[in-house]
Amino acid sequence: KRREIWKRIIHELKHYYNGSKLLCTETKITFGLLQQVLNGHRLTRRERKQLNRTINDLFRVVPFSVFIIVPFMEFTLPIFLKLFPNMLPSTFKQIDNNEENLKKFFQIKFEATQFLQDTIFKSQDISFDDVITIQFDEFLQKIHTSDNYPTINEIIEFSSRFSHKLTIDNLDRSQLIALCKLFNLSFNGPKHYLRYKLHLKLYRLKNDDKLILNEGIANLNIEELQAACHERGINSFDINNKSLQSQLQQWLDLHSDKSISPITILLILHKIKTKDTTVFQPIHVNNDMKECQVFSQIQSTKIHTKHFTYLQQISQTSSQR
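User: That's the sequence. What structure does it adopt?
Assistant: Structure tokens below.
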């Protein structure tokens, strides 16, 4: 037992040492990016995310450092992290790459989408004609049974009939909670606060969509593709690079059309994705998935090393300007 405890202490010390080292490297690169912004240079999407992430981490360092400076406060750190999981800087967070936990996480998203699909047309806050309800059910059933996937034009043409009613402002609290789960948002608070958070999330996604469209999906690596799909409530586990690009492209094509609500997009993309698979299939976690930034971040020395390489790429790109 003593050996196990000692090994765990050594492991944690190494983890926080690597996290501190990585944060210093990110801070150094961020100062270079800030200098470029002051000189009038335009940052890429990757550099913007790097800048925002590091600035947020630096703000989190202040309360986090209290637990290290004050004697015996480090013993209360696990309790505070349980209550406030976003308090820890991203470079100190640990990735949960356990297959069962990933499967459970995917199950939550699946059930949230299924709940929206089952209740959205029965909501008392949204009035739908019986014809539209039947047509929507038939359209989803057609996606599930047909050999061919619907085209973007077919989805736009059909969805434009009722998307104006499928808005965040028309959802009840249980549906808002399901949508928050899909977008990986906390769902504590009254309805108005949840609506505000979802509107803000969609506004940020809209801006991010423009950056991806301008730079091209082909410029995103596997980790960035997984993170982009995850942020948009799209399944990104156990999927190859080509399928991730296809899913993200479908979202971008549909979300760029103002006549279609994001709720409709999620319901249809969810039906397309689950056409040939079931949620109970085992999720085979490969190295790329373990090392991706879907949960925002870093555990082992291997991941730290890969992230250093990624930061060096940004640094080299910045220095060439």
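Residues 33 and 39 are 10 Å apart (CA to CA).
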